[in-house]
Amino acid sequence: MVRKLLYLILLFPLLTGCENDLTYDGRTKIIYEGKLVDQEGNPLANIPVSIYVTKRGYFYSAGSDRDLISYATSDANGHYKMVFPQPENEDNISLLINRPTPKRQPDSTYSTTEIYNLKSENVSDYKLVFETTSLYKVENSVQLAIGYPVGNPAIVKLNLLGMVKDNIIDYNISYPRDESDYHNLRYSVDVAKNQMLIIEYQLEDGTTGQREVEIGDSPLHYIIEL
Q1: Domain end: 135, 150, 167, which one?
Q2: What percent of the chain lies above the pLDDT cut of 90?
Q3: Does residue 9 belong to any structural domain of this protein?
Q4: How far is it, in rounded angstroms, from Cα 216 to Cα 111?
Q5: 40 pairs with which residues across the strands?
Q6: In a domain, 143, yes or no
């Protein structure tokens, strides 16, 4: 008993020191909403959607503080809506689509999407309405290999706008990048067959650009030409 009590006394400072630095304005509520459809444009119901707020990095950053502040499930029309208190000192807000929530597991037959680098200035009249997000059945995937140009200025941020198996989209790709953005430079991804994919990028000098890539039924190696 004495040994157990001593263990708890030693452990207490560690437990009380692990505080989350994120703060919120409980009087101000923010709304995120959007719609999910399949590859044919049909509404997708019962897909879990969630919002994470992080400080000191992004959703996947080691050592970051992270709060799950709201989650929902898409309705029969594919619509989702979440209301949450306005963060006051966040570094990043992420919208996760078809990822696990406390109430529902993802539908593993469909692709997933994370939209990160969401900022307070993206909200208008306390609301942010996202463009319709298309998910596809991952059994209909083909591999896309991406080649990057050699030399300067280098590509430092990348978005794939379209149907991607495990997509990660920087909502504010024109913002200056930091080291945590490098996780979004991908070299080989699974994407939906028979679609027009848009590659959106930011160069080291801050300029941005786009390229259209036609995806067919066969694997593709695409080199980004600047």
Answers
A1: 135
A2: 64
A3: no
A4: 18
A5: none
A6: yes
Task: Report the run of H or E that residue 144 belongs to, with start and end.
Answer: strand 141-147
pLDDT of residue 201: 93
Give the end of a domain, one of 115, 135, 155: 135
Residue ranges with strand state E in 43-98: 48-55, 65-73, 79-87, 92-97
Specify the length of the chain in residues: 226
Closest CA to 172 of 62, 92, 112: 92
pTM: 0.86
> Which has more pLDDT, 22 or 191?
191
Q: Token pair for residue 30?
A: 């923010």
Rounded distance between C-alpha atoms, residue 169 and residue 134, angstroms: 13
- CA dist list (Å): 185 to 82, 89, 91, 114, 159: 30, 27, 20, 15, 8
Q: Which helix (H) or strand (E) holds 198?
A: strand 195-203
pLDDT: which is higher, 72 or 150: 72
Residue 113, in any domain of the structure:
yes
CB 180 within 8 A of CB 223: no
**First-last CA distance in the chain:** 70
Q: Which tokens belong to 175? A: 């913002």
Instruction: List C-alpha distances in Å: 135 to 78, 107, 110, 211.
Output: 11, 11, 6, 21
Across 191-203, average pLDDT: 96
